[in-house]
Design goal:
- The protein starts with 22 loop residues before the first strand and ends in a 12-residue tail after the last strand.
- By secondary structure, the protein is α+β, with helices and mostly antiparallel strands.
- 26% of the residues lie in helices and 16% in strands.
Length: 133
Amino acid sequence: QKERGLGPTHTTSAVGMVKRQPFDIHFYFEEKTEHSALQVRSTMQKLFPMLRFHSPFNEPVGPHPLPMWEADFHDVSPECVNAVFGEVVSWLMLHRNGHPVLVHPNTGRPFDDHASNCLWLGAPLPLKLGSMR
């Protein structure tokens, strides 16, 4: 089923998830912890080549209050998403090196996805969600 505003390649499944990019991972860092964050990113790129990794942002962007790098499940086949999600999140629980990490679904409702449908590893950060309403 196609959901309004998601574009031609983004359809929703029965549970309301965007099939082509069901989850995003935001891995936050500060200037003094950037090296550690990028080391985790490099390790994850080797361990989880099925994820799509975006270039790091060296300053806050959008609702995100700190610099971060992002990965998503864009290239994970729909039948493997649940298994890959479990592998990635359980690995991050133990190897995030103290960095805060936000994992959220993409349901087509960005405010809800970032505010209440999300999972935080570490202390949650105050996101700037006003523009998402």
